[in-house]
Amino acid sequence: MSLPLFWLIVGLVLCLMELFLPTAFVESTLGISAFVVALVALWVTSFSLQVLLWMVLSLVCIALLRRFVPRRTPYTLAQPTEARTLTLIPPGKTGRVLYDGNSWPARCEDNQCAIAVDELVFVVGRQGNTLLVLPDTALRD
């Protein structure tokens, strides 16, 4: 098998993989880099130089692509909102609360405080899918 044909097949496989395993266009940029190396392979016969060129082109393309990926911003609440505990929330551990009609995992913001079942709490933040809550008594003081 000739090297240009090898790089064409690699590029095609990587671009097709992007269709089935979406990776935010990383695989497709690797595939496009392989297509460019397939063209260069017509003149450069050293496989190690071709691999080096493919790696450099891939890194450059991915670095340029990162400019178009939106940055994740942390979730913040404007004001504390009410929720009700469904299970006991032990100090430093998670329990469950009823918030906006759904059951959510929750942890008390104060690691020394335990919150009883069916108690009114206020959601003051979020880490991933876990809500950070404070008991009603903590905000009234």
UniProtKB/TrEMBL annotation:
Membrane topology, as annotated: Multi-pass membrane protein
Residue spans crossing the bilayer: 5-26, 32-65
Keyword Transmembrane helix attributed: yes
Superkingdom classification of source: Bacteria
Organism annotation: Halomicronema hongdechloris C2206
Family annotation (Pfam families): NfeD
Residue ranges annotated for the NfeD-like C-terminal domain, each copy included: 86-133
Cell location: Membrane
UniProt-listed InterPro entries: Membrane_assoc_protease, NA-bd_OB-fold, NfeD-like_C
Gene Ontology CC terms: plasma membrane
Keyword terms of this UniProt record: Membrane, Transmembrane, Transmembrane helix
Name assigned to this protein: NfeD-like C-terminal domain-containing protein
Major localisation: membrane
